[in-house]
Amino acid sequence: MSDGTVARPSSISGLGLFATRDFAVGERIAPYVGRRLTAPPAHPSPGHPTYVVELGPGVWLDGDAAENPARHANHSCDPNAELIQAEATEDLWLVASRPLASGTEITFDYGFSLAESLFHPCRCGAPACVGRIIAAPLRPALRRHLRFSRRRD
Ligand SMILES: [Zn+2]
After folding, report:
1. 47 pLDDT more than 60
2. Measured in angstroms, how far is the CA atom of residue 86 from the centroid of ligand 1?
């Protein structure tokens, strides 16, 4: 099930998920599995990793489980994979959004809200890193906010 990936220490954070072979764009890297929740998860506390994915209205998946090696994939502001829900089965998969060479760390966009991002600094190292784990569409707003805050300091 974890063929093609291995979890090992990452320069981004904790353990990361790394490719042990090449992947083509669009290729499934690993399933993202866990327990389905019908109530919203507890608010993430500072410094604690969160593995909860919102599947749809009123449904969440908690990927904090040993059988889910994909949970080790770190967030990046410049990711090389996406978390995609298969239409037929509703299973979640990490899918390569760029060609991946063996040995590459696999990252995706955690898609955090502005509120969530306040608890989660980002150390992905990408040139465009905004310093917080936050969904790509919200990053320009966060950049404006950070610039504004800085100016008032
Ligand atoms: Zn970043």
Report:
1. no
2. 27
Q: How far apart are CA 81 and CA 83, in angstroms?
A: 7
CA distance 52 to 45: 13
Q: 43 C-alpha vs ligand 1 centroid, how far in Å?
A: 21
β 5-9/15-19 pair status: antiparallel
Q: How far apart are CA 79 and CA 100, in angstroms?
A: 11
Distance (angstroms) between ligand 1 centre and the Cα of 112 equals 12
Cα 137 off chain centre by: 15
Distance CA(106)–CA(79), nearest Å, equals: 8
> What's the whole-model pTM score?
0.85
pLDDT 10s digits, 79-134 = 999 999 888 887 899 999 999 999 999 999 998 888 888 888 999 999 999 999 99
Cα–Cα dist 136/73, whole Å: 17
Q: How far is the C-alpha of 101 from the C-alpha of 121, rounded, in Å?
A: 27
